[in-house]
Amino acid sequence: MQQKQIVAESVNAEFEVRDYERSLARSAVSRTRADRPHTFELRGRTWDLLDEVFAPIYSPSTRIGLDFLGWTEEVLAPRSGSLLEIGCGTGMIAVTGALAGCDRVVASDINPRAVENARLNAVRHGVADRVEAVYSDMFEGLDPAERFDLVFWSSNYVLAPAGHTYGSAHDAAYVDPGYAAHRRFLAGAGERLTPDGSALLHFSSRGDLDELYSMAAQEGRELRTLRSQFVPEGEMMVEHLLLEILPAVL
Questions:
Q1: Separation of alpha carbons 237 and 229, rounded Å
Q2: Buried/exposed 58-72: b ≥16 CB within 10 Å, e otherwise
Q3: Alpha helices (H) along 77-171
């Protein structure tokens, strides 16, 4: 009886952590809280934060993304070449990529305020000559001829129903209705790479990993786990994953 109760509690906790309404509630709190700052300190640097933009101080995902890429304040993995970041938010990863050595960075976001925010942080950290912030719905607003050595997206990995309509641009950083954005990334990221480039996706167990793998197969892609990190969230341990998107082997 006790074992059944433990299993039931585990299932309930897993359901809660993947619940899209819970993620939307977190989005609302992050967007409207009275103590939300206009600047914040993270990884040894000061960053601008505009209203309506995803705040890295209220979620571990940006910090984990930097860890996955090796771009800490000590720059554990210096990088050259070009970077495209999808869903740049404040521009922390894009700007840190430029500081780590990338000579050409495009920071894109579907939220116009995030595009403005990324520009502010590129200026703040002296890399505005190498970081271009652009408004783009996934790849639509980009130069179709440009290719990148690295394409990276720290995704809105919580699955929302396909018919869900965002209440604000801020919510788009938290949930993906029907995984439409994930499908587009899986299908199109490889087309944006240089011959030796890599397409990387930061996902987590708060999302539907089975659905992601199924979608990748449908798009002729394979996913390879490069790194993982567990983070406590309530009573659950959430696994964050760095996935490489590869062409499927026929």
A1: 10
A2: ebbbbbbbbbbbebe
A3: 92-99, 112-124
Q: Under a CB-based contact definition with an 8 Å cutoff, are residues 65 and 74 in contact?
A: no
Return the percentage of the chain with pLDDT > 90, whole number: 85
Residue 234: band (very low, low, confident or very high) from pLDDT cuts 50, 70, 90: confident
Q: Which tokens go with 18?
A: 């993947």
CB 122 within 8 A of CB 94: yes
Do residues 182 and 211 touch, judged by C-beta distance below 8 A? no
| Strand 148-154 to 82-86 pairing | parallel
Q: What is the DSSP letter of 125?
A: T
Tell me if 99 sits within 8 A of 125, measured CB to CB: yes
Distance CA 79, CA 68 (A): 13
* Neighbour tally for 47: CB within 10 Å: 24
The model's pLDDT over 175-188, given as tens digits with 9 standing for 90+, comes to 999 999 999 999 99
Q: What is the pTM of this model?
A: 0.92
d(CA 87, CA 208): 19
Q: DSSP class of residue 133?
A: E
